[in-house]
Amino acid sequence: MPSEHDLVRAAVELAGTGVVPREAIVDHLAGLADGLGEEAVAELLDRSSFAELPHGYVHVPSLADGTTWTVRVDAEDAAEGFLLLDEDLAPLIAWFAELDTIPLLDEAGNPAGHAVVPDDTVEVLEGPDGWLDPVAGGLAAVSVVGDALRIEPCTQPPTPTEAQVAAVRAGFAATARDETVEMFEGERVALRHTLSEEPLLAALAADRTVFGDAAIPLLDDLYDAAGLERRDQHVAEQGFDWGALDSARTRSGYRYRHGLDGEQADRLTVLFGACQAFAEQGPEALGTDEEERGRAAILLGAVLESAPVATAFAEELRTSSLEPADVEAFADQLDSSFGGNLPAGVAWLRARTLDEAGRPAEAIDVLRAALGSDDDRHHVPALVDLAGLLADRGDAAGALRLLQRAGVDDADNYDRDGYLLDPALEEAVALLEEVEPYAAVRPKAAVGRNDRCPCGSGRKYKVCHLGKEVLPLEDRAWWLFRKATRYLARREPLLAELLVELVVDPYEQPAFHREVMALGFFQDVALHEGGVLTRFLADRSDLLPDDEALLAQQWALTDRGVFETVGAEGELLDVRNVGTGERITVANITEVAEAGPGGLTFGRPLPVGDSHRAFGGLVPLPPALMPDALDVLDEGDPAGVAGIVHRIVAPPRLTNTAGEELVIHTLRWSLPADVSEDALDEALRGAGLDPAPDGGPESTWHLIGDGALGTERTEASVWLDGDALAGEVNSDERAERLVELVARAVPAATLVEDEARPIDEIMASADPGPRNDLMDDPAVRDAVREHVARMEEAWLDEQVPALGGRTPREAVGDPVGREEVSRLLASFPRLPAGDDAVGMDPDRLRSLLGLPPV
What we know:
Strand content: 15-25%
Structural class: alpha+beta
Largest sheet: 7 strands, mixed
Number of helices: 36
Strand order of the largest sheet: 18-19-16-15-14-17-20
Distance between the termini: 49 Å
Oligomer: single chain
Radius of gyration: 35 Å
């Protein structure tokens, strides 16, 4: 079975410097590897510097070799050591994206270091200090020499030649796609365009000599000379209707994000466009005089009557660059056009802007006036917003009536997998679940109907507070926390979710992601460390019941902490704050009930009456993380708090003895024919590599370092593989060091491959059958041994419960402790004989602790 490297090499040879049809390359590679289908071939080529054009694949490095590109170099980017790739070098991105390092050459063609493509982007190339100084703020000629780059100053931009212009025109004709887009009211428009790199790649594949004999001009100059124009990532003929394309893409995005139909997407486009225009131009955007502006307001008011459009408009405003003051002015303009008799949709927008401005009581008045008590006035967003404001005021029954009027029911909201059937009602359903328990409970009367009211008014209870009783504050504390988290979801909808994503990937572990989101811990982090609770108090203090406002102020002054469990009984947890020494009792702690005496937890219990409540959750904290957790609490950084939780729930991180994450790198360098094995041996020995010992593979060299427990470790291995030099290391850092070492020792060697395989990916793909030959891989075996050795070193300084909380190093300091450690090590399983045995070795641990062998 050919390796991936062999298959890629075969594909490169087949493509050459032209275009190879998709079917031809699939058939060719399938003939080399049985069962290799079209999808597998596409994935292989996508990882191998190929670009796909409409009529086949091209190998970008083969096309680029020998060409020179003209590039603008921004002075600020150059000062930072960055060269942008997505402008004048855009056609080469498919090549750069697959490289870890790119050799650099000086003007004489000698090695001048390496540039790298950062892991998180393919938009820039980062090089050594000062590498762009000669071209900063001007033009550069970037020449591709094999797999290396030579960068020189360019005094004047090249003028496109007639042959280049004709080639690019032909390249556009070969790659352009006809796209029919739907415009307003079903109108359809045909648009012809392509991706910005494709015309030039197709032109290179058709005739490289056109671009090898003369430098490639700035792309915009070249496309302009060819009658084309470029915008963002697309190229089209001059005069192209970019507005139609933008509008179609915008409407398509609205339909996809919000589930709108075509007509609703049209209306949202009009509404959002009017709001944007108003922010830029003021009232004149809606008309030149009051009459025109009035007609525009009537039209926009009708658009806002659509609940799906209004809801989508609110979502778009959240992520737009429009300032709240601009949206408020837009709502004021619509309001003034209706003379106070507002339609529900306009009232909804006006109330939203009032609420955003910290005037919720005025927002309630606007919504009540527009909605009245007429059940036919059925604007769901307005009804839900008014219900939320009444809930904040403490009127659960009134909020429930409005939600029922809006058609929000507690039945059949979710499917069998727990997903909301109508995502547009997410906020409404959450509000329903919040207020229902409080609307259904009526407190007992404080005194008799005809007795004096205990409020001190002097009136009879039946005419003063009968029917207006409220639950005790202790019973409403959970509701207050829900009000704060609902405010968070409205004002900072992504903050808690972004914090969760620092802990768990929502795409790799969706179920766990939902579980963590539901915990409440990260909502509390966003409220407290994120500062949202302070804004909640500023906006809602006058609306909340007085006792709730005071309690929320107390919560804002309550810091997160690390707590040691003193005792537990049922759902009550008696804890001591490690930082302050304060002892408190925490209720509703079922999720950490397993924390026994001496156990540690991490969270922010909130005071409620004589006890505390863990509304935001308490997370079990390993003792080893306590110092870091206390440091994070001093800093008050929300990302730092999330980072501690990530370290609690994240799977173990496998590292080598240097503490570097295990990643198996397989590297290959091509060697010129005139490099002899003797010369290579001398060069590698001179760089610090040792030849394999007697009995080892021939033509193999090792880089040896000091290992754990007084041993030596192999940091890197390289060997001759035919006419190439191959190597293997077990971390990204060691790969980088090996690449630099080989570049210094053998300047003529060219790095052609660096395949990185994370250790967890290797283990996940290993054969789970009776005989797993994963450990037969020397690199994996060495990596695991290094990790185990690091675990052994760390264990010596860990607090061990069996040793009374002392570390093994501490315990061996007295006779009783030495005996305890000896008994503990005797309970460890002994490794089987043989070189392949891997695991914590009690004999090695005894030796390091100075205990006699057994």
